């Protein structure tokens, strides 16, 4: 509800921390706006509805879309939200604000360096480019600044995690017998997962790709760096998801008018994520030669178990919302649904996001099945799937959460709740269209990551409808999403113009069944971190060992393919051509001379 | 800890669902060998030395058994070799696919014959080929700024029309 409970807001109590949160959100939303612009360009270009960039630039756009949205937008929102959650739930200021500022600065500098390096791909004259997409598979090679920026960004996130662990230790010293508050619990388990997950990408970037792009080492092993990427690439999915879960578990019940159903079950869920999210990355490599089937099989089984925490979440969240509805006077088997605050964009946004997550979970189960994966691998089905999960469950929850958080961070009301409501509904509708079209196109075999999925030698055959219809659907959906993104950003921008008001503060109620009934071992971070490491070692030691044994740490040879030089080499070829044409002409001239 | 009765039920059902999934997928993988899984059976090789390789140096289709064929395919920016790949109908074809440069994809459109193509590795996939016809082949992994033009063709010809070797 817009009328606050009269309590002090977060910014009243922790102005410096609130400023950090706002800055992190600002970076996140700038990246979101740019990413959405690139998204609609892709949606129009690849469907051939409207093409105003050369197709070679499509890959610059796609790299920027991926990196800006799933690295910059999601992770900056995450650090902002986590800073809020840590400060709020421990109810203490950061230990040293200079450290907090330092990690935010490092992350920002890294993002700007990587982002600018990507965008320079539009300016051919500069000769800098990083059109390697957000997966940067070697031996395609980006400019060294692309990798360097990523490394700086990563270091920033590590320091952020350390900052939050430091807060925990300090709080713990003063409250030795207390249970870790749930929000802090989410932050700490998520960051442990992040430390483990980023080992993969850090090794890939720092030991192989960066030195290789600088010419310090000659070759890399493409299968090894790709496997290290996916060591990180799957858990990062949960890293994006955890801020959404934090909001679903701790804020959504409140907005619905109730309380979280079960705090212990929530802890179990987050521990499961920490344990299971890394030893599954090989499920992105079911089709990779050089990895034994047995390893793929293990990854698949683990992946299926990873469904468990999400299924538990579905239960707890629905139960909490129902509790809220009944508190508000709702009755009946389904009649309680009517009693919910559907006019509140924060509530409706999160509910719609949750609904799409269920659909995304379903298409995800299909991806995870090893044999069905052969049909949809690298088709549009895959972006169809993850625009439901990270593109909606996460992104829409972040937007909805922002509607609720904004007054807490600024003491200003949201500019317009009706526009907010329209915005979340338009996102849902646009995504329903775009994602549906992508899933169906994928089943027909239309590949992802391509500027022009039209081929000379064959057509895609469709069971019903036509590719042209699907394209129109995709483009309309993408356009609606872009409009929704603009509505969101405009609503926030106008909110800055609102006067500050006092008494907007909101409190978060404790869970129905609190942490005190749950075993203390759940709060033992050391134990969970150790088990998680063992599981990762079990899942990865053998496959990584086999790759290195088969083709060596630096691979069996092969050149680097810098994405910049594609252009240069055209230039070089042209130069050679003119040179040889010149020489031929000179010869001809010589011959002519002789004849004369 | 206190766990609500519904929570217990939900937990039980969730676990059951997961076990069910694993079982069906296992059955699919082990019980119905419609297509072999991509594994680590293939060799490794130096992508810069492909031209000297006994098979990939001159990629093409070979008869290796009664109704069994081996198709050696090289993916490179931005084409497949050979193109088209010609095989006789009603046979079993094992594709050996490798890359001369960057990571590519190899998928026969509309079928589940699909693999990643990684430089240094040889992907091996065995496919039952039935009726004559033409199938598109797509590179489904981004491989550079000409990626969208990278395609090939698989021609399945009646056995009596098959002239027994490389089309080129
Ligand atoms: C305005 C909203 C959006 C539109 C219109 C849009 C559109 C698209 C399209 C058409 C593709 C497929 C491109 C291709 O494979 O050729 C794509 C890829 C992708 N999108 Fe979005 N998207 C939007 C929002 C988002 C959001 C919010 C996220 C995540 C937070 C996201 C993450 C991604 C990722 C990771 C890819 C894959 C990039 C790659 O293959 O390297 N998108 N998007
Ligand atoms: Cu995954
Ligand atoms: Cu390609």
UniProtKB/TrEMBL annotation, chain A:
Membrane-spanning segments: 24-44, 64-82, 103-123, 143-165, 185-209, 229-252, 264-284, 304-325, 346-366, 386-406, 418-438, 474-494, 527-549
> What GO biological process, any one, is recorded here?
aerobic respiration
Q: What GO MF annotations does this protein's record show? A: cytochrome-c oxidase activity; heme binding
Which PROSITE patterns does this chain map to? Answer: COX1, COX1_CUB
Gene Ontology annotations for the cellular component aspect, listed alphabetically = membrane
Cytochrome oxidase subunit I profile domain sequence ranges? 25-522
Q: Which Pfam families match?
A: COX1
* InterPro entries tied to this protein: Ba3-like_Oxidase_I, Cyt_c_oxase-like_su1_dom, Cyt_c_oxase-like_su1_sf, Cyt_C_Oxase_1, Cyt_c_Oxase_su1_BS
Cite the entry's keywords alphabetically.
Answer: Electron transport, Heme, Iron, Membrane, Metal-binding, Respiratory chain, Transmembrane, Transmembrane helix, Transport
Q: Where in the cell is it found?
A: Membrane
Q: Which Gene3D superfamilies match?
A: Cytochrome c oxidase-like, subunit I domain (1.20.210.10)
Q: What is the membrane topology listed in the Swiss-Prot or TrEMBL record? A: Multi-pass membrane protein
What family does the entry list?
A: Belongs to the heme-copper respiratory oxidase family.
Q: What is this protein called?
A: Cytochrome c oxidase subunit I
What is the originating organism of this protein? Halobellus salinus
């Amino acid at each position: 509800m817009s009328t606050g409970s009269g309590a002090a807001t977060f910014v009243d109590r922790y102005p410096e921390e609130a400023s950090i949160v706002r800055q992190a959100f600002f970076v996140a939303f700038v990246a979101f706006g740019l990413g959405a612009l690139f998204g609609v360009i892709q949606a129009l270009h690849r469907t051939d509805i409207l093409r105003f960039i050369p197709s070679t630039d499509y890959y610059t756009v796609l790299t920027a879309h991926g990196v800006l949205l799933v690295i910059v937008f999601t992770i900056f929102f995450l650090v902002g939200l986590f800073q809020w959650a840590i400060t709020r739930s421990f109810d203490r200021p950061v230990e040293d604000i200079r450290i907090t500022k330092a990690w935010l600065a490092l992350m920002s500098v890294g993002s700007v360096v990587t982002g600018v390096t990507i965008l320079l791909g539009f300016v051919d004259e500069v000769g800098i480019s990083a059109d390697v997409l957000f997966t940067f598979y070697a031996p395609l090679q980006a400019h060294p600044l692309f990798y360097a920026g990523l490394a700086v960004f990563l270091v920033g996130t590590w320091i952020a995690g350390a900052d939050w662990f430091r807060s925990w230790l300090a709080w713990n010293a003063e409250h030795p017998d207390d249970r870790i508050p749930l929000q802090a619990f989410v932050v700490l388990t998520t960051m442990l997962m992040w430390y483990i997950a980023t080992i993969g990408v850090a090794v890939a970037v720092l030991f192989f790709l960066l030195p290789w792009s600088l010419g310090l080492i000659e070759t890399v092993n493409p299968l090894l760096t790709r496997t290290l990427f996916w060591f990180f690439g799957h858990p990062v999915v949960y890293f994006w998801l955890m801020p959404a879960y934090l909001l679903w578990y701790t804020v959504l019940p409140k907005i619905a008018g109730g309380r979280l159903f079960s705090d212990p079950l929530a802890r179990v869920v987050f521990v499961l994520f920490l344990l299971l999210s890394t030893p599954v990355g090989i499920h992105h490599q079911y089709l990779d030669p050089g990895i034994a089937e047995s390893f793929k099989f293990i990854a698949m089984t683990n992946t299926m178990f990873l469904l468990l925490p999400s299924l538990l979440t579905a239960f707890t969240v629905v139960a909490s919302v129902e509790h809220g509805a009944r508190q508000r006077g709702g009755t009946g088997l389904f009649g309680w649904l009517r009693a919910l605050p559907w006019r509140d964009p924060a509530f409706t946004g999160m509910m719609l996001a949750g609904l799409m997550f269920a659909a995304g979970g379903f298409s995800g189960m299909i991806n995870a099945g090893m044999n069905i994966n052969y049909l949809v691998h690298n088709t549009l089905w895959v972006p169809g799937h993850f625009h439901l999960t990270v593109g909606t469950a996460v992104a829409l929850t972040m937007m909805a959460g922002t509607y609720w958080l904004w007054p807490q961070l600024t003491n200003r009301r949201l500019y317009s709740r009706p526009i907010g409501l329209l915005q979340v509904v338009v996102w849902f509708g646009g995504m329903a269209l775009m994602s549906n079209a992508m899933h169906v196109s994928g089943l027909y075999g239309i590949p992802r990551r391509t500027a022009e999925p039209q081929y000379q030698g064959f057509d895609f055959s469709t069971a019903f409808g036509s590719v042209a219809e699907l394209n129109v659907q995709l483009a309309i959906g993408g356009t609606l999403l872009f409009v929704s993104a603009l509505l969101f950003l405009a609503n926030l921008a106008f909110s800055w113009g609102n006067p500050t008001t006092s008494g907007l503060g909101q409190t978060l109620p404790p869970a129905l069944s609190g942490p005190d009934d749950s075993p203390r071992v759940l709060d033992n971070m050391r134990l969970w971190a150790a088990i998680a490491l063992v599981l990762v070692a079990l899942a990865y030691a053998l496959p990584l060992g086999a790759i290195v044994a088969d083709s060596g740490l630096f691979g069996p040879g092969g050149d680097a393919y810098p994405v910049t030089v594609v252009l240069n080499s055209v230039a070089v070829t042209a130069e050679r051509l003119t040179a040889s044409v010149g020489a031929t002409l000179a010869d001809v001239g010589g011959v002519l001379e002789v004849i004369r | 800890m206190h766990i609500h009765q519904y929570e217990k039920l939900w937990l039980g059902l969730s676990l059951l669902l997961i076990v069910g999934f694993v079982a069906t997928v296992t059955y699919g993988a082990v019980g119905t060998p419609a297509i072999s899984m991509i594994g680590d059976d293939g060799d490794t090789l130096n992508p810069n030395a492909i031209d000297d390789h006994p098979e990939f140096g001159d990629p093409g289709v070979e008869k290796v058994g009664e109704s069994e064929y081996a198709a050696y395919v090289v993916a490179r920016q931005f084409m497949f070799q050979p193109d088209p790949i010609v095989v006789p109908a009603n046979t079993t074809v094992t594709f050996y696919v490798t890359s001369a440069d960057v990571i590519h994809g190899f998928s026969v459109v509309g079928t589940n014959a699909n693999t990643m193509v990684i430089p240094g590795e040889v992907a091996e996939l065995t496919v039952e080929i039935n009726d004559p016809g033409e199938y598109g082949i797509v590179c489904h992994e981004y491989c550079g700024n000409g990626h969208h033009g990278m395609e090939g063709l698989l021609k399945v010809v009646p056995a009596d029309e098959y002239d027994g070797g490389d089309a080129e």
